[in-house]
Design goal:
Layout: E1 4-5, H1 7-20, E2 25-33, E3 37-45, E4 52-57, E5 60-65, H2 66-72, E6 76-81, E7 87-92, E8 98-99, E9 106-107
Parallel strand pairs: 1-6, 2-5
Antiparallel strand pairs: 2-3, 4-5, 6-7, 8-9
Length: 108
């Protein structure tokens, strides 16, 4: 499978990288957090390590470390604006078994 981006997410990420002036793509991972177990981490991908898996989506590199890939394989990342002041990444992860009420953490 893969980790993919919607067109809206790719447009937002490309704009962030252009504004920043450098970067190979986006790095998506997970960390232990919250009441259900894990939270998503999103950062610029400035290097690709040997244990990383790299996917091409919408013309951008999506870099995922091997440990996180087991939790997020098959995920689609979208960028949504729910109001003028509220916007962010939304993760459609088919592996999620449970999520906390506030939406900040998940379990697989």
């Amino acid at each position: 499978m893969a980790v993919t981006l919607t067109e809206a997410a790719a447009r937002h990420i490309a704009g962030m990288i252009d504004q920043r002036g450098h970067g190979l793509g986006i790095r998506i991972g997970t960390k232990k957090s919250g009441c259900t177990g894990f939270a998503y981490e999103v950062d610029y991908a400035d290097q690709i390590d040997a244990q990383d898996q790299v996917f091409e989506s919408q013309g951008l590199k999506v870099v995922v470390d091997a440990t996180s890939l087991a939790r997020i394989d098959g995920t689609e990342v979208d960028f949504v604006k729910s109001s003028l002041l509220n916007e962010g990444f939304e993760f459609r992860n088919p592996n999620v078994k449970d999520a906390c009420g506030c939406g900040e953490s998940f379990s697989v």
